[in-house]
Amino acid sequence: MTFAASQAFARRTDRRLLETLINQQFWCWGQDIRRPAGNLLLAYGFARTRPPAGVLGSSCYRLTGRAYEVTLWGWGLLITTSAGGIFLPRQGFAPRLVREPLAAPCWSPDGLPPLTDDDDPALGRWFQTAAVWIADYELWVLQTAGLAYRRACVAGSPRSSFSLFPELVPALWRHAGDRVAHRGGAPPSGRERCKDTDEKAIQPSELDDQFKGRLLAEIDMIERRRNQQRARCSSRQRRG
Length: 240
Prior knowledge:
The structure is a single chain. This protein is globular. The protein has a seven-stranded antiparallel sheet with strand order 1-2-3-4-5-6-7, with helices on one face. It has one domain (4-230). By secondary structure, it is α+β, with helices and mostly antiparallel strands. It is built from seven helices and seven strands. The model is unreliable at 1-10 and 184-208 (pLDDT under 50).
């Protein structure tokens, strides 16, 4: 696994939650783009650049004007400053550090800045920055498009049986960011936040026992469903 530190500090349960969050998030971004009432990424402030004619690839969405630049494709998320940043691929949990920003829009991973395999504590802090930004975005979606909209997005996923409650997702991202950052290196001195962040958003340190119980129940439910699916597959194979 390219992100060696994840093996060192992410427990099995944490990785399961991270992989589920990432898979669900990219699915939801795709739904936000195709939203009949209007593209939510554009409404949030992203600028879209489509691949040139004859070039295969994903449209490039870029968000600037903040402490960092956010670039999003169907295959990954890049968050950078002039000093570098982090790339999160769509599949699994394998974040990578980048040492420089994206020079120009690209349409496939081949156009990314050089990615490093360094087991660097900065990777944990950069992941927290990404997790906080995603949490802020999801909170904005809930406030702008409504919980019913996000629930419908999740219900339409081919992986909906392993989905997380949308109303918990912002806090789950913050929780995941804190755990990764604090295990991957020294805790950051502060969070870089978007200008439109809701300052009343839930912080992991403020989660009450009831929420923690719901969070653990979510993780347990995912595991039970996966075990049930494996059991059904094994049963069909035996019958076959």
